[in-house]
């Protein structure tokens, strides 16, 4: 699935809609396939914005839809986003060795998963030891260490079992102290990854845009 199905006129329509006022999450979710935008983008958007400054919160929707290029392949942006968070933000939550071990396992899992998707392969079988992570998480007294390992476990479950992506983001926030500062960095990283997504140019048949945003 390519963003906006490669159509600049569809992106322009979406941007014009956002210029008129807020667009509710349910319209994004229900229209994801029509827009060619994965549902996880909506999850990130609506979880992150709750902790942003008022200025960033107001500009996020338009900034997001305008950053997505027609024809962009967004299929692994969420995995890159999680990889960045686990590598850059998660280690700050705890210096415990067993936390670092599980973070390393999840980074391997995310890396392999991205390669599998990019090369259209079946899952390679890299194992993040979820049972080990859960046992450790139940045993520790450190709240942040518990949260960090639980997030690692949830990411593995998401990749292998299709766990709800919104739950991953909620787990991520339980690992950090200053949610506002982390949210700003999440916002900036999401936009950066979206802009870096590879673009494929394809010719598509005309798309009727009339009543696209009308309530169904």
Descriptive report:
The protein is mainly α. It has two domains: 3-74, no CATH class; 77-177, no CATH class. Helices cover 64% and strands 0% of the residues. The chain is built from ten helices and no strands. The longest helix is centred in the middle third of the chain and has 22 residues, at 97-118. The two termini are 23 Å apart.
Features:
216 residues, mainly alpha, 2 domains
Summary of the model, kept short:
This protein is mostly helical. The chain has ten helices and no strands.
Structural class: mainly alpha
Helix content: 55-70%
How many helices? The count is 10
Distance, first to last CA: 23 Å
Name the poorly predicted regions: 203-216
H/E series? HHHHHHHHHH
The total number of structural domains is: 2
Cα-based radius of gyration, to the nearest Å: 18 Å
How is the biggest beta sheet arranged? Answer: none
Beta strands, count: 0
Mean pLDDT: 77
Using the alpha-carbon principal axes, give the shape: globular
Strand content: under 5%
